[in-house]
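Aggregate trends can hide what the representation actually does to any particular protein. In the encoding step, the backbone of a single protein was reduced to a row of integers, each denoting a local shape. The record that follows shows the chain in one-letter code together with its fold in token form.

***
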Amino acid sequence: IIKSVNVSSRDRMFIWRNIKNTGAVSLSHSVYLLHDTEENRLITSNIVKIVRDRNGEVLQFFADAFNEEQEQVLNKLIAEEIAGEIKDFSKECEDFIYDVTERISNKKFKVPELEELNDDLHKLDKWRIKLIQKHSPGTTNIDILNKEIGKCKERLNEFEEKVLQKGKV
């Protein structure tokens, strides 16, 4: 539970990004849930330090589920969080492909356009890697992420070929 009333908006965003990078599930405003693992304990101790260094307050609890049903609820929340992030990633990939397609149809085959698209693709690929590292998703989800980035790379390669062809003319 994080209280950040006396914390600047810039620092609150920094704290929030650190929490999101853990794969934590938001239960409500400023209340987050993580599996109790050694790695998560280390990560949360770093977040506690960050929050306290920025004049915020943190209450950290370690709880056991009372039964199998509650454990399943927790696992479902985490799975939904992962699915949501993969959906967001897939949407960004669709938008990227749409953008490249539009540029191809408008015959905007310029090197600066290619550089911009390469930067966008690089950001998408960093996001894909971060999702894999953060969640250690199952093989199916990794395949989805890899397939999506592969489609983006294919479309960008088509655009790059057009830019190179235009340069030869």
The first strand starts at residue 2 and ends at 3. Residues 68-105 form the longest helix (38 residues). The helical segments are 9-20, 38-53, 68-105, 111-135, 139-168. The chain has a mean pLDDT of 86.
